[in-house]
Amino acid sequence: MNENLTYSSKLHPVAAYCLLFLIFSSTFRVFATLPLESLHQMLSTICIVFLCIFYVFNLILNFRDSRITRLDILMWVFILVNFFAAYQGHVVFRQPYYYGIMAQRSVLLSLSGILLITLLNHGWISIRQVERTFLILSLTLLVIFFFFFLFVNPLKFVDAEFVAYSPIRGYRYRFQFALVIMLLFYSLFKISHENKSRFYIVVGLILVYLVAFLQSRTTLVVLAFTILIYFIRNFTMKEKIRNALLYGGIACIAIALFFSLGYTSLFDKYQILYQNVFNVFLGESPDEASSAVRYMEFNIALDYITKNPFLGNGFISNQWNGGWHEILGYFYPVDIGILGNIFVFGIIGTLIIYLPYYYSLSLSREVHSSHVFFKTVEYMLLFFFLSMFFSAVNIRDSSSIMFLVCLLYYFRYYYRPGNEMLPEENIQHLMT
What we know:
single chain, 69% helix, 18 helices, mainly alpha, 432 residues, disordered N terminus, disordered C terminus
């Protein structure tokens, strides 16, 4: 396919950006943790129906042309594992299968990644438009998050899913911040790869949001590990020493300044929060509510895992008899990381849930590109991978994970600088 044909078939920019906005907002559940729950439910339902119809027709064409890829097989397995958890919920807790499927239906939003690849391959949209949509949407979300934290009292939404309370941190918002984490990686890579100094402002704002407002121990630890891995992999020893001295010095000066001005309450909070985690590892009883709850959830999960270690205990919908809370008390598998995954999916299912990361690793190793958006996708997947050891993010973010895998697939097989389509003679490499 020549370049003229590719670009003559592009969608009108307005249509392209509107479509990409819908794809990103539904796949990353943007409206689910804002005061727009009804909009999220309506949008996700429409998108799921449309994606299923699209994928069935796409699959028929691929079967006809014998073009079933490894990505298709991975997608089927990933979706089936999640639906099998609905079946196990019926076997173990007698939940009607319908409730389990409906509770897991958002996994079908993973098909948006296949739709995106199709749109890109036909030249209807460009990867540059995908990148711009992500940038605009994530910046908009960052502004919205700051607005809520600064000007809207969370007590107005005390019964909403996106407001949490703890004795140490008080009431705080818990928005769906995956796109903001992606924006942090994107901004860091813009600085390190393209010397775009204006992105320092974005990095600073996101760090303030994460540290001062979100106050999530898991997020900060995983983020630190992810950035450290990037730092080790992508800088020479001279650059490592220089950057460590520069940014480490800035951080030390900032901390010293806060202490000298008497702004120590935030540091006191983090000292207590991380001390409680440390106490749990030492086998001591934590004295902070959220740590104590997780300690209790660990014990509940272990009891059930011993009964169903390989196939798991399934997933329970909040719409059925009060959900987990009515069955096991305060218990949410997402809180306890890999143990929560083993509780829901079993050892076999958990291993399968990790397959997208193994596949992504093989894809990223075959791509030699400094494209900032590619690096962003790569390290966002690493962030999700590390997060799953501490918090079972895949239970709520499965569609986001597979969407990113599909983007990596595009960069591996289709993307070429200056020409977003592979030459026709390379198409056979996409087959299995």
